[in-house]
């Protein structure tokens, strides 16, 4: 029996990048998946490629009515028991250059979208007898760096909301965890103008001296979606190549 046989998952931001990699891996492992995004043509193409185990829906994660429609669409595949809140945006601006509109744009998608997602799937997961919500935060939900004020604020919020939701939903056998990727080679990272080798060079200082790949993050998400993670909730799962451990200092002895 496949690891995720019988699971029905809803993945946001599923048209490309980590969302696409996640949707593909979940299907490979036996799940049926609703791919949700605003990139309709690209998202539909991915769903078509995945065949009968996948459908595509348009979803602006800031719109509660569209969330409700996406959850209803999942009912075509069975009882919804996995949500991957992956959709996100990133803006690089200093604190003084960040406008109120910039801040709220990031906050609405990265933070409000996660809140609405958790709220929208609750009744369906409760009816299914439980489920797993995986909120994709970031290494910047554990630390920060310059030019990421709005993004970091939103990703710390995702980390905090995850814990509150886990406390409230646990008695219904709904687990809620956050995943914290480091640098991952996607369009958000600069894949459209940067080679893999160029991306790797930016991580020479960390324990695993290379950029991460979307499927490596998806693998952790798939574990959390599975019954193998049945006693994991309110936890933070890093997929960061050792970024958070610190940096290798070339002036000190090394192996």
UniProtKB/TrEMBL annotation:
PROSITE patterns, sorted: ADH_SHORT (PS00061)
One GO BP: steroid metabolic process
UniProt keyword terms in alphabetical order: Lipid metabolism, NAD, Oxidoreductase, Steroid metabolism
Domain of life: Bacteria
Stored Pfam families: adh_short_C2 (PF13561)
Enzyme Commission number(s) of this protein: 1.1.1.47
InterPro entries, alphabetized: NAD(P)-bd_dom_sf, Sc_DH/Rdtase_CS, SDR_fam
Coiled coil: none
Enzyme category, top tier: oxidoreductase
Any one GO molecular-function label of the UniProt entry: glucose 1-dehydrogenase [NAD(P)+] activity
Family: Belongs to the short-chain dehydrogenases/reductases (SDR) family.
Name recorded for this polypeptide: Glucose 1-dehydrogenase
């Amino acid at each position: 029996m496949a690891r995720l046989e019988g699971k029905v998952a809803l993945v946001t931001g599923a048209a490309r990048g980590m969302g696409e990699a996640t949707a593909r891996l979940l299907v490979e492992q036996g799940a049926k998946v609703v791919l949700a995004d605003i990139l309709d043509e690209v998202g539909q193409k991915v769903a078509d490629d995945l065949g009968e185990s996948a459908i595509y829906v348009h979803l602006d994660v800031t719109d509660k009515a569209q969330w409700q429609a996406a959850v209803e669409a999942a009912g075509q595949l069975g009882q919804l028991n996995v949500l991957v809140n992956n959709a996100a945006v990133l803006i690089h601006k200093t604190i003084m250059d960040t406008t109120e509109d910039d801040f709220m744009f990031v906050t609405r998608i990265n933070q409000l979208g996660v809140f609405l997602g958790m709220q929208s799937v609750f009744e369906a997961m409760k009816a299914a007898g439980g489920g797993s919500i995986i909120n994709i935060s970031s290494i910047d939900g554990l630390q920060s760096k310059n030019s990421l004020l709005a993004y970091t604020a939103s990703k710390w919020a995702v980390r905090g909301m995850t814990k509150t939701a886990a406390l409230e939903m646990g008695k219904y056998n709904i687990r809620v965890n956050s995943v914290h990727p480091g640098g991952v080679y996607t369009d958000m990272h600069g894949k459209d103008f940067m080679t893999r080798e160029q991306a790797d060079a930016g991580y020479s200082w960390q324990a695993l001296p290379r950029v991460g790949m979307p499927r490596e993050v998806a693998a952790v998400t798939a574990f959390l979606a599975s019954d193998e993670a049945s006693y994991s909730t309110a936890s933070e799962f890093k997929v960061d190549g050792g970024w958070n451990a610190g940096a290798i200092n070339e002036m000190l002895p090394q192996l």
